Amino acid sequence: MSAAHLPAGTEPLQCLPPLAPARRTALPQGSCDAHAHVFASACPLDPARGYTPAMVTVADYRRVMEAYGIDRAVLVQPSVYGFDNSALLSALADNLGTLRIVDEAYRWRRPA
Hints:
three-stranded parallel sheet; single chain; 5 strands; alpha/beta; 22% helix; two-stranded parallel ribbon; globular; 3 helices
């Protein structure tokens, strides 16, 4: 839900931070998380966002990957950044071997 759909005078919802990872079973070697979000406090949030995320950084997510035995992951552009994908690109630049990205906003900006 974007802020455009919120009742007048309503602020975006504040999300709670995720729980600390607690590995319960061993995942198969080569496991891949196919949908994850990371955030960066240095990147401005879209004023029209529908929620305010807990700032779970790529370093936080790498700890989750380690705890669960996840070898690879696909990061997805969170809506709170609108068309600014700098947080996603920064995460990818530092983790080329294990992370890939999906950025739906890019589809609308790329040259025809």
